[in-house]
Amino acid sequence: MKKSVLPRKTLLLACLLATALGVKAEVKLPAIFSDGMVMQQQSNANLWGTATAGKQVVITTGWNNKQYRTKADATGKWQVAVATPKAGGPYTLTFNDGQTTSLKNVLVGEVWLCSGQSNMEMPMKGFKNQPVAGANMDVLKSKNPAIRLFTVKRTSTLLPQTDVVGSWQEAEPKTVYEFSATAYYFGKLIQEMLQVPVGLVVTAWGGSAAEAWMTEDMLKAFPDAKIPRTMRISSRKTARLQCCTTEC
Fold first, then answer.
1. Cα-flanking dihedrals φ and ψ of residue 124, to 5°?
2. What does the pLDDT read at residue 9?
3. pLDDT by residue (tens digit) across 31-78?
4. pTM for this structure?
5. Is 233 left (phi over 0), alpha (psi -120 to 50) or beta?
6. Is 204 helix (H, G, I), strand (E, B) or coil?
7. What range(s) does the Sialate O-acetylesterase domain occupy (predicted)?
8. For 156-169, what is the mean pLDDT?
9. Per-residue model confidence (pLDDT) at position 131
């Protein structure tokens, strides 16, 4: 009898599929949870992400090697709160659902959300013909690995999101030059006064309406506020988000 031999292409395809399935099973984390992040000290900090539905996810915190266990729901989502220590680091966080994902160079300190319009959005380099007084010299002296910067990319959506576009960066001339001036000067002062790591998360959009920063449930308390149903962006060079109700 002839032995049944699988073609090489079939074996290669099977290996690729197995690899792809393995990658898919890995814990996935939003961008805010990544290498170089800062976590709020002495708090119960929420962590969340996705994994294979029904899989147990084990989170190990590097400052005390304590394990936290949770399970991904039917849609693959999971969330857990971990207790953080006094300011310190760097630490490593590991997430395991059968495969390990690690976050390195994690600091624990003070985390601040810096939000608003153009006054918060204005970078250290200034706007066109609108420089920030003294910023050039401050940028040159800005290198400080204890200050971490995260700028959320402007994205229009009508629904709450579980992830954003952005990355953590250490304070240095190249990164500070593009970062919010108001947020940087605030964070620099906090870091100098408290002598702890500081994480600054900037989410700002010049000219945005207050309603755009509120949830639908909050807006229902104000009968005159129209809840957006569709969106459009103006064609002007400095595009501004225009939210439209069903009456538009």
1. -60, -30
2. 52
3. 999 999 999 999 999 999 999 999 999 999 999 999 999 999 999 999
4. 0.82
5. beta
6. strand
7. 110-217
8. 90
9. 95
Tokens of 247: 């009456």
Q: How confident is the model at residue 80 (pLDDT cuts 50, 70, 90)?
A: very high
* CA gap 43, 81 in Å, rounded: 9
Q: Which residues lie closer than 8 Å to 154 by C-beta, 6 or more apart?
A: 205
User: By 3-state DSSP, what share of the chain in percent is helix, strand and coil, each rounded to 5?
Assistant: 20, 35, 45
Which of 18, 82, 17 is CA-nearest to residue 49? 82
**Amino acid, res. 185:** Y
The DSSP secondary-structure symbol of 125 reads T
Q: From the centroid of its chain, how far is CA 5?
A: 49
Residue 192's φ and ψ, nearest 5 degrees, are: -70, -40
From residue 100, how far is each of 59, 96, 220 by CA, in Å?
10, 4, 43
User: Cis bond leading into 223, ω under 30°?
Assistant: no
Token pair, residue 136, equals: 């050039």
Q: Which of 147, 29, 149, 146 is nearest to 94 (CA)?
A: 29
> What pLDDT is recorded for position 241?
42
